[in-house]
Amino acid sequence: MNTMKYLFTILTTAFICHSSPAKPVNDTSALREKISNIFSQFPEATFGVAFKNLNTSATFFWNAEDIFHSASTMKTPVMIEVYKQAAQGKFSVTDSMLVKNTFSSIVDGSTYSLDSTDDSEHDLYLHIGKKLPIRDIVFRMITVSSNLATNNIIELVGAKNVTATMRKLGTKNMQVLRGVEDKKAFEKGLNNITTAYDLVLVMESIAKGTVADKRSTDDMLDILLHQRFKRVIGGKLPADVKVANKTGAFKGVRHDSGIVFLPDGRKYVIVLLSRGIEDDEKSAAALAEVSRLVYEEVTKKPLPASPKER
Fold it and tell me: What is the pLDDT of residues 266-280, one digit of tens each?
């Protein structure tokens, strides 16, 4: 009799386990459905998403290997190269360098200049012909996405060196070929490119402190935390959440990439890429909503769909 009860218990347990499988540790099916509902509103667009929870094994990817124009997200790899070369003793970030506005196209070596009215930052143009600390120029390149700062810094460190360093970090497709506004290169399709997966590796290396020595990494994080453009990753998150990020945008393209620091010490990295939406407000809002959903997935704390933007 006891034997029959024992067998019955085993069979019942087996049936229950088979009928109700354990939820996978990285089950993001619900998150995927919610994000899919957002993206389905833009059939003309392509999106790329990469997310890594740095305190667990949780990840989420959407078209993470699709290639996108980097826009200004490539300025983070350029910053990394600056600190790498500084660590090698080639210069100090406190050294000064001459600010110029004449650059050479990678197509034929012809010269071109940037127009301040097309740039997101104008003050640096007042310093052309003068010297400024390298860190100050890097700070402008990241926090206000100065194109003039970017081109000066790329000439300092070399675009090929930036790409080589990114390969050492594990990226496969990311390429930094040139500075900004090289129209001849753009017309020939010679552009800086990335994938969501490659860019999330870059942000992860900064977040984990594996990209450089601690002092350099801390300084890069400080610069990213001073980012002025916060309406995508940080746009719908609570005010006590810190975001160290770098955006990128031009007509029809809207990106953001960053490290999210939660008040309890947890952190995650996230990359949001998009192309094909002409209305910048709509693309920014859609990506901000995805960021909100990822935050809820990590914290298990629901947020209002449209809280006051920071």
Answer: 999 999 999 999 999
